[in-house]
Amino acid sequence: MVVIRLSRGGAKKRPFYNIVVTDSRNRRDGRFIERLGFYNPVASGASESFRIAQDRLTHWEGVGAQMSPTVARLVSQAGKKAAV
């Protein structure tokens, strides 16, 4: 099954996550099909903490990819902020 999930990067105590499309059998930080965006939970000041290519997300959902619960939460929160 194809999933949209987070892949961890960054240094110790400084996490940075790429939002990737991958096969569910691959390792968390292993091979992926496409990078859709990023999430930086420790972003401060004017730096951007979340970005996703909405058109590519829609494409992958259209062909049957499932979002992980965390990615679904992040996308819905970003949608609420955009609506305000």
Can you tell me about this structure?
The chain has 84 residues and is an alpha+beta fold. It has a single domain (1-80), classed as S16 Ribosomal Protein, Chain: A. It is built from 2 helices and 5 strands; from the N terminus they run ββββαβα. It has a 5-stranded mixed sheet with strand order 4-3-2-1-5. The longest helix is centred in the last third of the chain and has 15 residues, at 69-83. The model has no long low-confidence stretch (mean pLDDT 94).
Write the layout of secondary structure elements.
Elements (H helix, E strand, L loop, with lengths): L1 E10 L2 E10 L10 E6 L10 E3 L1 H9 L3 E2 L1 H15 L1
Parallel strand pairs: 1-5
Antiparallel strand pairs: 1-2, 2-3, 3-4
Features of this protein?
5-stranded mixed β-sheet; S16 Ribosomal Protein, Chain: A; alpha+beta; 84 residues; 2 helices
